[in-house]
Amino acid sequence: MTYPDLKFGIFLAPFHALSENPTAALARDLSLIERLDELGYDYAWIGEHHSAGFEIIASPELFIAAAAQRTQHIHFGTGVSSLPYHHPFMLADRIMQLDHMTRGRVSFGVGPGALPSDAFMMGINPLDQRDMMLEAIEVLVPLLRGETVTRKTSWFELNEARLQLQPYTKPMVNMAVASQVSPAGARAAGTHGLGLLSIGATNAGGFSALATNWEIYARKAKEHKQVVDRRNWSLVGPVHIAESREQALDNVRYGLEAWVNYFQEAAALPIAPNEPGVDPAQALIDSGMAVIGTADDAIQQIQRLQEQSGGFGSFLQLAHNWADWEQTCKSYELFARHVAPCFQSTNVNRTASYAWASQNHDRFLNAVGGAIQQEIDKDEQEKHAK
């Protein structure tokens, strides 16, 4: 079965172990984006984090500006900009500039902020973050459309605010709202007709909530007379593939433990497995959260997500550095070569051409044989004529 519209990319937080040189790690992240661009990936969403030392990109806009200069085709997204941490006018101004600098190769992913430690350092109550996100979205949408906004809330004020630049992407830069188990993201996205970004699509809670989130999303869109499209829904999940399952499991021994420890000890997010005595890689596989195996396993995961969700537009691999650099790049290459084409129309004509040639094989073989025999007969006639 093919899904002609399905697109692929990565969600780059990023995750870098504390033992690594951060300067070299960031440089390697840029190199990864260049490699993905060469492999034909569609998207790279870049995260924003400010604490805990593991997810070390503080400004997605800065990273995207640098990466856009090194690439030709791949489309970028802020994955995501934490709205309570920014005055919405300043953030909108930076995104508008980036829309122009990338010639429209950027999407604006937004959310309330993922790390409680980030909010704590800025004196923001985690209980207020989702309401602050909604208030920011209400002014960001008209600002990015080039409209004038006046609004006063408990944490920001706008007085006849209007951006200097008109949007490069018409009518406005593409926006998407992060959603996991909470309905807040789906409600906001539907209300404003924005895209939906399901970051925890493969963990137990996120997977179970996929159909529910779409129902909320579509219902709010209908209430507010917005048009939504499943092609604007992105699902995120971790993948590492190799030529065999045994090789994939061996590869992830390089960095999986540090990733698991980060989520168990610092990130305050219930993502990584926490079962004493159970191999974390096997726990991730058994729970359905991660693919650590072959291209066939990745294909089955995407089909599973299709069935659970009812359909979506893009699948983003959660970039994780479980394997070393060489094997990480190999995984992305295997995915591009053997997984993505199964969900796209890339090989439809090739397959039809092969089938046609196969069905007519005997006819063509006889024709070739006849042509050869004709030349043999012609040569014999010329020989005897002499």
TrEMBL record:
GO terms for cellular component: cytosol. InterPro entries: Bact_Lucif_Oxidored, Luciferase-like_dom, Luciferase-like_sf. Coiled coil: none annotated. It comes from the Bacteria. It holds the Pfam family Bac_luciferase. Residues 7-307 form the Luciferase-like domain. SUPFAM superfamilies: Bacterial luciferase-like. Keywords: Flavoprotein, Monooxygenase, Oxidoreductase. GO terms for molecular function: monooxygenase activity; oxidoreductase activity, acting on paired donors, with incorporation or reduction of molecular oxygen. The keyword Methyltransferase does not apply. This is LLM class flavin-dependent oxidoreductase. Belongs to the bacterial luciferase oxidoreductase family.
